[in-house]
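Example protein
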Amino acid sequence: MSKKWIAFSYNLAGKKKSSSRVTIWRRLQRLGAITPVSGIYLLPATETCIESFQWLAQEVEQAEGQAVVMHVDGFDGLSEPEIIELFRSARQADYNEILEKITEIEDRWSEQGTFSEDELSGAQDELTKLKRRYSELIGIDYFQSYEGATTAARLDKLATLLFPEIAAAPEIPIEQKADYQGKTWVTRPQPHVDRLSSTWLIRRFIDSDPTIRYANKVGDDEIGFDMKEPSVGFGHNGSLCTFETLIKAFQIEEKGIDVMAEIIHQIDLNDERFVHPEAIGIDAILRGWLLENLEDEELERRGLALFDGIFQTLANRGVC
């Protein structure tokens, strides 16, 4: 069955419209639109993409221009696989820019053998910017370009080089989910990002019938997570937060969970290892709930809904 596409075309007449034209062009680039034919911009016909083009059309009209948004089945002379390849080629070029900069940093490291403190700080700042750009790209990589996975692996490798504490992370013993069914799990009251997300992870992927208790002490036959005593249950391990520790311990590999772990890590540890724009909003929501002095059970209820939504977004990112 042929995929459906959403097309956008606009016209801004007059020299006075040059600034508006540049603004619209930049917006189209940020949306990841391609131009299969001159003057026509194309995106997959997802609800988000349709809405983006509709808002863009309003901007054009407000600038006294004309815009058309329309559904199309295809273009003469271009098969569906060829259109998909146009999207992948566009993202390939974007990813290659990141890969080139990664290579430059790696080459400098190889030539010098190491970095001075200032050079290391500068390289870490460069990595942060590259991760931010990568995060933008995966949101518009509608057909999962091969270079996306390659770029992610290269960024992780560079992070290990520039942040030695990452490489020194301890091994996490593998646990069997079957041994953790129907258990009582205990974590500290007033949970924030690591404890709330870990509660979500336990309920969704580890224990099919858990009891979650909020307390400062773990009782007999109970399992602690993110407690103050590092030796109790599951918690931070080296540079890993509790959520990451649980993922590794129970070998959870669902699509999107790795990016979710990076977001949780970014909010919880704030060590500049990961850069995801979503983290700022999520952190603000969670802190707002704490300021409301909500009961632990209400925080959990809201947290489960929040992390369900985040996971679904990440798991279906790029699905058209």
About this structure: The radius of gyration is 23 Å. Residues 80-112 form the longest helix (33 residues). Residues 135 and 276 are 6 Å apart (CA to CA).
